[in-house]
Amino acid sequence: MTSEVWDEETAARYDADTADMSTSEALRPTINFLEELAGSGRALEFAIGTGRVGVALAGRGVQVCGIELSEPMVRELRRKVEESALPVAVGNMTTARVPGEFSLVYLVFNGLSNLQTQAEQVACFQNASRHLVLGGRFVIELWVPPLRRMPPGQTAVPNEVSEGHLGFDTYDPVHQMCTSHHYVKDADGTVRYDFGNFRYAWPAECDLMAQLAGMQLEGRFSEWDRGVFTAESDSHVSVYRKG
Ligand SMILES: C[S@@+](CC[C@H](N)C(=O)[O-])C[C@H]1O[C@@H](n2cnc3c(N)ncnc32)[C@H](O)[C@@H]1O
Predict the structure, then answer these.
(1) Taking the model in full, what pTM does it have?
(2) Which domains does the chain have, with CATH numbers?
(3) Alpha-carbon distance 125 to 210, whole Å?
(4) pLDDT at 2 over 60
(5) Which of 19, 28, 74, 223 could bond 227 through an S-S bridge, CB–CB 3.0 to 4.6 Å?
(6) Ligand 1 center to residue 153 CA distance, Å?
(7) Contact residues of ligand 1, CB 6 A cut-off
């Protein structure tokens, strides 16, 4: 298992760090999309974190469950919603099993990349499929690695350049690995450094992983608002159907 476990400090900061993408306005297209696919069935979020998406989806009346590796992240989620309203299994999304069947399993915010080997990513698709009813959907939101932005000999690409945040990604194309480096200026002026390691996967590789798990690509969009996915898209929302 190669996932990095999110610690207490990261968990405590998570909601503030993602505030921009957690407003009801920012989340609306995501929640609309997921609510429609869940229908009258249950939804399971892999790597639910502090519940940024899951809590909002449950707020629409969908029965949501979660799987999450980090206990500190689950403790943050518990400040918002009780176990009886949104049960979470602490475990690895490649293997953990939540009782019952689901019409929707979803993994947002580049979650697949937290799994740092191909074998684990395949296991994640298989575990999603294991939880789905026949005809149920697995939805992933995943970045497309911007390798076209790297001329020969260059291995780093900026991900953000602003007054409070300098970030760049370094790539190891041989192993499909990326390290994201972040230098963030805190309110008191001190600069903190953070990094994360991710395995990138092309959309076509995701489709193959889905096939190995008994699912087929049903639709691919550039965004949650169902924009057209093109060669210029830097991210995709893909829907896989079981059976
Ligand atoms: C970027 S956060 C996303 C949280 C939430 N889904 C959201 O959109 O805000 C990534 C989460 O993945 C969790 N995670 C990483 N590897 C995992 C694994 N193998 N199984 C389950 N959760 C994992 C981390 O602990 C963290 O909470």
Answers:
(1) 0.96
(2) 8-144+201-242 (3.40.50.150), 147-196 (2.20.25)
(3) 6
(4) no
(5) 223
(6) 32
(7) 3, 6, 18, 47-49, 52-53, 67-70, 73, 92-94, 108-109, 111, 114-115
